[in-house]
Amino acid sequence: MFDKFKGAAPLDITPRRALAVALIQCMASDGEIDPEEVAHLVSVLGRNATRDELDRCLKHARSTPPATFLQEVTPKLNQQQRLCILLNMIDSAMADGEAEPGERDLIIQYQRAFGFDDATMEPYFNALVAKNERAVLDV
After folding, report:
1. With 80 as the cut, is the pLDDT of residue 38 above it?
2. pLDDT over 90 (residue 31)
3. Residue, of 76 and 97, whose pLDDT is higher
4. Spatial distance between the Cα atoms of 93 and 87, rounded to a whole number of angstroms
């Protein structure tokens, strides 16, 4: 009987929804969601994202532990999609200036589940660090 109060059907995980859930988990992993992170989430979801879509992804992110989500989503994604999600997580974590320990731990968990080693990720990481190092513009 109480199942009627649970709301919408289970979220069908598409690559774009996987990105949204991963970013929400990353944003929440440090205990606070910064305005820069929300702006990044909205920008990567694209113009066609609706409030309902975002709410459903948020509900899924809150109710599904990262390890469970990774078991569910990893087989549904190809290597390019996995890399895209991981890089967006790193970029989001760095959006407020520095990745917090909870964000770093979650990103490492995703990196391992997605099958990327540090050597593969290093050039991408260095590019994101350079992109987000806006202090160089103040000289």
Report:
1. no
2. no
3. 76
4. 10
Which residues contact residue 71 at a Cβ distance below 8 angstroms, ignoring those fewer than 6 apart? 113
CA distance 134 to 9: 43
80-120 pLDDT, tens per residue?
999 999 999 999 888 767 788 899 999 999 999 999 999 99
> Domains of the chain (ranges plus CATH)?
12-138 (1.10.3680.10)
